[in-house]
Amino acid sequence: MIIINIGSLVGIVPEGVLRLQGAEMSRTGTLHDAWLRVQDGRIVDFGPMSAVPQEGGVLDAQGGLLMPAFCDSHTHIVYAGSRAGEFLDKIAGLSYEEIAARGGGILNSADLLHCTDEESLYEQSMERVREMLDKGTGALEIKSGYGLNPADELKMLRVIRRIRETVPALVRATFLGAHAVGRGRTREAYVDEVVGMMPQAAELADFVDVFCDEGFFTPEDTVRILAAGRRCGLRGKIHANELAVSGGVQAGVAGGALSVDHLERTTDAEIAALQGAETMPVMLPGSSFFLGLPYARARAFIEAGLGIALASDYNPGSSPSGDMRFVMALGCIRMRLTPVQAFNAVTLNGAYAMGLSAQTGSITPGKRADLILTRPGWTLETLPYTYQTPFIRQVFLDGEPL
Ligand code: NIG
Ligand code: FE
Fold first, then answer.
1. Domains with residue ranges and CATH for the chain
2. Is 313 in the pocket of ligand 1 (CB under 6 A)?
């Protein structure tokens, strides 16, 4: 298939570039008035309409924008039911921490998940996945962490595995046993339990995650869990600095984490710790929006020469949305990223944060054809600007229309 009359082809990145950092984040390879060829699910080549190949199987883009599908590196979309009751508590004035301290929050979702059979959990989760794919997400990471005991954590990881085998998107699984201390245990005993779950979890997961924050797990717990993960072949992805300056960034970098996520509360020490590291800082503006937290200091990170990714954090407690276009809009409107910076953060850098940037996240020959074709007239600027107007004409995953 050849897509012709592409108004702008954006996100063109040379082969071998796996992430963008500092000033690189302000640029993206663009070709106006272009064509692009897809074969066997891969991007094969592209060029200007002045030299369009004359072949069959043509799709007319009618001047629309063609871009890589979104790469959402941080979600918790396998959960049961909702936390709509806590939504009312939040409106009444309770904070995320206060709701958690009353035994609500993550523990509430764990109780619901415990009572939900695997089939129903899969169906509920698949609805969210379909919603995300319809909105242009082509690669996503999904965490466990509402099980908080071996049987329920493995149930979640099996559901993620089944999603991965069903959907045309790329899916990565993360074992987040250390999301909250399971009911009736001390923190110390529960960390031992998480370490004990690691070998079985590693058969189903790609990464291990720890909620390293005030009231949850400490940097020492994090270092220990990351080491246990490494012994089983799992790389780290840390929740850090959402509720307090937690030490989670430093613990993550020291433990070789692929990403450190949230970062609503950071000092220059966290930026310094990330210099020269392979670790991608991932910011989650949807949770700042929903919980009324400060937004992460994206521009300070970029000015210091770092790359950043943006992800949805889709979950029932702090970010009940997986809309990556809205995430991009929050990046521009509230974090003052330029549309190009926000675009790079929701595509190639998001893919990097899942270890998938050699396969997807940019317009690069050889990569999967995970693409969004917009309606005519859209640009990278209008996408986050008129942030609710429908813009997608067709999503392609692995070269096939969704
Ligand atoms: O990334 N902060 C910890 N975990 C999730 C929230 C999970 C929940 O409240 O259910 C987050 O925001
Ligand atoms: Fe999260």
1. 2-69+363-401 (2.30.40.10), 70-352 (3.20.20.140)
2. yes
